[in-house]
Amino acid sequence: MNLLPTNWGDVPLASMSLLGPLALFALVSSITPGPNNVMLASSGLNFGFRRSMPHLLGVNLGFTLMIFLVGIGLGSAFQRVPELYTVLKYSGAVYLLYLAWKIANAGDMEDGEARGKPFTFLQAAAFQWVNPKAWVMAVGVVATYTPQNGFFANLVIATVVCGVVNLPSIGVWVTFGTALRRVLHRPWAIRAFNVGMALLLVASLYPVALDLLR
């Protein structure tokens, strides 16, 4: 079966009418606090904007690819074997707790050894698959903003829109963290910021905690 449309003009007008709402969804979802943005802000503070660029691009391209792969059928694997999603969800939660601990114990800006290294491009891209918020966003894009009529073309459009909107949105957080380097010079202030970011990261796991309490 050929998923590609014979004419991109055949893409339903209904899908084009969803571009505005889709862009708004992508903006709100991308710019609001979540594991990626908390970690990017912390990276901006501890390593600066330039050294955080691989992390930033890894988040953007990794999440964009995730939307596309979920759309073309990866999500159906979790429908057939829901236990896989459960394992992924709780493994991701444990990994996020580990990252929160690492952020909370980061050294000051002069202590390069204690601070460790920023995320690489591949680490940031791979992280999307254990990020609960990324899963919610990806499934939401495919289920809500990708009409079934002309699905493949609509999926490509939705993926591109989300990728374009996501990049500057998460870039705001790296910029925010980098700007704080000029303000937070004292070790206690940097430590307080890192601890605050770590607590936000833990707080982002509340949906997983609610599942455990049910």
From TrEMBL:
The keyword Transmembrane helix is assigned to this record: yes
Localization recorded for this chain is: Cell membrane
Q: What is its main location?
A: membrane
Alphabetical list of PANTHER family matching this protein: ARGININE EXPORTER PROTEIN ARGO, ARGININE EXPORTER PROTEIN ARGO-RELATED
Kindly give the InterPro entries that the UniProt entry links to this protein. LeuE-type
User: Which Gene Ontology CC terms are recorded?
Assistant: plasma membrane
> Which domain of life does this protein belong to?
Bacteria
Q: What is this protein called?
A: Membrane protein
Transmembrane spans:
12-34, 55-78, 84-101, 121-145, 151-176, 188-209
Asked if the record carries the keyword Transmembrane, the reply is: yes
Annotated membrane topology is:
Multi-pass membrane protein
Q: Keywords in UniProt for this one?
A: Cell membrane, Membrane, Transmembrane, Transmembrane helix
GO biological process terms, alphabetically, are: cysteine export across plasma membrane
Q: Name the Pfam families for this protein.
A: LysE
Signal peptide positions are none
The GO terms this record gives for MF are:
amino acid transmembrane transporter activity
